[in-house]
Design a protein that fits this description.
Helices cover 37% and strands 9% of the residues. The longest helix is centred in the N-terminal third of the chain and has 16 residues. The chain has one domain: TIM Barrel (Alpha-Beta Barrel). The radius of gyration is 25 Å and the shape is globular. It is α/β, with parallel strands linked by helices. It starts with 5 loop residues before the first helix and ends in an 11-residue tail after the last helix. An 8-stranded parallel beta sheet has the order 1-2-3-4-5-6-7-8.
Length: 372
């Protein structure tokens, strides 16, 4: 056969070589990072680009607030129906001048009813006996200037160290005067502790955050870098327990959005805590029935939070909260390679999540721009 038909044999060899030379995507041999198919599912769609009710975003960061054009910022807020933005980066990287500049820019722009600032603290000098008193005094001064609360970054428990190089635990007793001062002043503490638990797990095929850790390897943690996830979370809960008169807003659903039964038990255990869902809406959107029941049961304990400022990304939050849509995409594949489903929350629950709970928890907000 080969002798009688050499041209056929030559054609087969050339075809094989040509196939081997084809780019991988032409052969169907693509990587997980590249695989992002368009769904063929045909279901009713109700994209939402503007929240049904004015809302308060209790978790936002505006690092340039002392100098940025706040009128332009509020214009973008109006476009998505954001009534009030809480900027948690009051002191920026720790400077008093940053807080003063931000407050002055808000005042001079006549936007005090729309833009709110939380202040921050530094742990430098925590080993000094007077650190607690001085930091509490600075906090009180910031509140007198106009700050409405205190934001605790995840630095506490992860990266903050004292002069001896020891990790500063979230429940370090040297910080107790600060928590007590917040209770005295009647201001909430929005606290972010640790990160998602999979960051501490093995970076292998069983890790749900595999892609995120591959793209951002600096997010990988371990029990020795700097401590086990369970320990850091336990330290946070110790603070909640020790300071029952202080109101804590647990950022990112306390990293328990993937276990709402556990989160509910924590809310029951710590009546001085409320939660916000910044950066974890993808967890809620993949469990619509259980999440809906959770929101209804704990409707007085949940507030709207987003974290990073990108107006278009809010659309997914609105759609998850407001609609009954099925199987629609999240905006960051490395956060969620799965699809979203809407919770279709009742209006009264939406109002509490969007603005009523924040008006109750954060002092002296302007309620006049909200329906009731």
């Amino acid at each position: 056969m080969l002798v009688r038909d050499p041209y056929f044999f030559l054609f087969g060899v050339l075809l094989t070589l040509f196939s081997l030379a084809l780019p991988a995507q032409n052969k169907g041999d693509i990587t997980f990072e590249e695989y992002n198919p368009t769904s063929t599912l045909v279901v009713p769609e109700h994209p939402v680009t503007r929240a049904k009710f004015p809302f308060i975003d209790v978790h936002n960061h505006q690092w340039r607030m002392p100098s940025q054009d706040l009128t332009a910022l509020v214009h973008d807020m109006d476009r998505i129906n954001m009534g009030i933005m809480v900027n948690l980066s009051g002191r920026g990287r720790g400077e008093t001048t940053h807080l003063d500049g931000a407050l002055e820019n808000i005042k001079s722009s006549n936007l005090s009813s729309r833009l709110v600032i939380f202040t921050n603290i530094s742990y430098r000098g925590i080993e000094n006996p007077d650190w607690g008193a001085k930091t509490a005094a600075q906090l009180e001064e910031d509140v007198q200037k106009g700050a409405k609360g205190l934001k605790i970054y995840k630095t506490l428990g992860l990266r903050a160290r004292d002069a001896q190089g020891n990790r500063i635990a979230v429940d370090d007793p040297r910080i107790d005067p600060v928590w007590a001062k917040c209770a005295e002043l009647g201001i909430p503490v929005l606290i972010h502790s640790a990160d998602p638990a999979p960051f501490w797990e093995q970076h292998n095929t069983m890790n749900e955050r595999w892609l995120e850790l591959k793209l951002r390897p600096n997010r990988k943690r371990s029990d020795a870098d700097p401590a086990p996830w369970e320990q850091i979370i336990r330290e946070q809960h110790n603070v909640f327990r020790k300071h029952p008169n202080t109101t804590f807003i647990n950022a990112h659903f306390g990293w328990h959005a993937n276990d709402l039964t556990k989160l509910g038990s924590l809310l029951d255990q710590f009546p001085n805590t409320v939660i916000e869902f910044g950066a974890v809406i993808a967890e809620l959107g993949r469990q619509p029935r259980q999440a809906r029941e959770f929101f209804i049961k704990y409707q007085d304990r949940i507030m709207f939070g987003k974290d990073a400022w990108n107006p278009e990304e809010y659309y997914t939050y609105f759609r998850v909260l407001e609609t009954a849509d099925e199987y629609f995409p999240y905006y960051k594949k490395y956060h969620a390679f799965w699809a979203m489903y809407g919770l279709d929350l009742p209006d009264e629950v939406l109002k509490k999540v969007y603005y009523k709970n924040a008006l109750r928890v954060i002092p002296n907000l302007d309620a006049s721009i909200f329906p009731d």
